């Protein structure tokens, strides 16, 4: 039986199609895949772009998921299961490494902290549950941004104005204050294999982070360990990353039934 609300059905089909792509696509490819008239596809895309569910890249004539779609897609894990399933894993991680840790989700250009576990005897942090911090400043945010398609990062950070919210007064010459600086940092993150933050959130503190991924390899959460910068050398930081990766893989297995395939 056909849908009694074809526009709603086609909207959901279009969203599902975009969600399965590794990057933005043309309107023609959408029309072909969904077997819809191009005029109908353009109409749907216009409405969904206006509402933030689709991002239009006019220079490339491509369409991809917008910020509202990312917010919607993360709502299930943000509201309850992510915290319930992630908290025991984070507790075990902190017991093992002896440093504080948190789990955060990407929400637009911010990260939202959903689990925070402080190690005994360690200073309190700003990463309390519910706190929002600009993603580009944090290790957990950078770990997720590094695994997004370049077009999605461009949609989130189109110009310097997107970097106006900052928590520290770091030197303008060294901070991430433009799309080009962010691209360079995300490339370093991909090459290194994990994200790093040194004093961007809180002076004298540093963090290392990795992303947890869904069954398609897309980032769904960032897991980070935070510590006083002078206490942890590079070798020890690499060891923390090993434990973070195990925790991220365990979280992905709990959420999606299968670990990430590398």
Describe the structure.
- This protein is of the alpha+beta class and 262 residues long.
- The chain has two domains: 6-66, Orthogonal Bundle (Arc Repressor Mutant, subunit A); 74-256, GAF domain (Beta-Lactamase), CATH 3.30.450.
- The chain is built from ten helices and eight strands.
- The strands form two sheets. Strands 5-4-3-8-7-6 form a six-stranded antiparallel β-sheet. It has a two-stranded antiparallel sheet with strand order 1-2.
- A hairpin with a 4-residue loop joins strand 1 (54-57) and strand 2.
- Mean pLDDT is 85; it is low at 166-174.
- Please give the share of residues in helix: 40-55%
According to DSSP, the number of beta strands is 8
Give the overall average pLDDT.
85
Proportion of residues in β-strands: 15-25%
CATH architecture title of the largest domain:
2-Layer Sandwich
Protein structure class:
alpha+beta
Strand order of the largest sheet: 5-4-3-8-7-6
Number of helices: 10
Any idea of the CATH class of the largest domain? Alpha Beta
| Low-pLDDT runs | 166-174
Rg value: 19 Å
Distance between the termini: 41 Å
Q: Please, how many domains? A: 2
CATH superfamily of the largest domain: GAF domain
Main sheet, how many strands, which sense, barrel?
6 strands, antiparallel
Topology order in helix (H) and strand (E) letters? HHHEEHHHEEEHHHEEEH
Which word captures the global form?
Answer: elongated
What is the CATH topology classification name of the largest domain? Beta-Lactamase
Reconstruct the topology from this structure:
Blueprint: H1 6-20, H2 27-34, H3 38-50, E1 54-57, E2 62-65, H4 67-73, H5 75-79, H6 81-97, E3 100-107, E4 110-117, E5 132-134, H7 139-145, H8 150-156, H9 179-192, E6 195-198, E7 205-213, E8 219-228, H10 234-256
Antiparallel strand pairs: 1-2, 3-4, 3-8, 4-5, 6-7, 7-8
Helix pairs in contact: 2-3, 6-10
Pfam family, one: HTH_IclR
InterPro entries: GAF-like_dom_sf, HTH_MetabolicPath_Reg, Tscrpt_reg_IclR_C, Tscrpt_reg_IclR_N, WH-like_DNA-bd_sf, WH_DNA-bd_sf
Protein name: IclR family transcriptional regulator
